[in-house]
UniProtKB/TrEMBL annotation:
Residues 1-68 form the HTH merR-type domain. This is MerR family transcriptional regulator. Keywords: DNA-binding. InterPro entries: DNA-bd_dom_put_sf, MerR-type_HTH_dom, MerR_fam. PROSITE patterns: HTH_MERR_1 (PS00552), HTH_MERR_2 (PS50937). Pfam families: MerR_1 (PF13411).
Length: 124
DNA sequence: ATTCTAACA
DNA sequence: TGTTAGGA
C-alpha cells in the first residue's frame, strides 16, 4: 500500500508517516517512481509506535524496541528481546527524575505562594 | 488524483 | 505537525 492508504488505515497523517521514516521507525520500500510502498504489517507497526510514544519513549528508543514486539491483531505483545528491559528501565528512571524535578518546582512555588498570602502582599 | 522533497507567515 | 511550493 502507498502512504495515502496507510494514513487512512492508521489514522496518522502522511506528513507524520514520512517523519516516522525519517526517524528510522518505518522503512517502506520504494517503487520505481519513488513512491513509498508499505507492507500490511506497517499498519500494526504504526499502532505500536503510537503506543510507545504515548508511553513517553523517545523515537530513538522506539526504533530499537519496535522489533521486540509482536502484534496479536489488537494489542502490542512484547517478546523477549535483549536490551528491552534495560531500555524500559532507563526510560522509567528518566520519567521518575522528571517527576522529582517538577515536585521540587512545585514545592518552591508553594512556599512562595504561602509566603505571599500569609504576608498579604498580593497587591495588584 | 497522488506522491515527493524541502522549507516556513 | 500543518501547510505550501514546484515537479513528476
Amino acid at each position: 500500500m502507498r502512504i495515502g492508504d496507510l494514513a487512512r488505515e492508521s489514522g496518522v497523517s502522511r506528513r507524520l508517516l514520512r517523519y516516522y521514516e525519517e526517524q528510522g521507525l518505518l522503512r517502506p520500500r520504494r517503487l520505481p517512481n519513488g513512491y513509498r510502498e508499505y507492507a500490511d504489517a506497517d499498519v500494526a507497526a504504526v499502532r505500536h509506535i503510537r503506543t510507545m510514544l504515548a508511553a513517553g519513549l523517545p523515537t530513538t528508543v522506539i526504533g530499537r524496541l519496535l522489533h521486540c514486539v509482536h502484534d496479536d491483531g489488537e494489542r502490542m505483545v512484547p517478546t523477549a528481546c535483549p536490551g528491552m528491559v534495560t531500555n524500559l528501565r532507563r526510560e522509567h528512571r528518566r520519567i521518575t527524575e522528571t517527576i522529582e524535578r517538577l515536585q521540587t518546582s512545585q514545592q518552591a512555588l508553594d512556599t512562595m505562594l504561602t509566603t505571599v498570602l500569609t504576608t498579604g502582599l498580593d497587591q495588584r
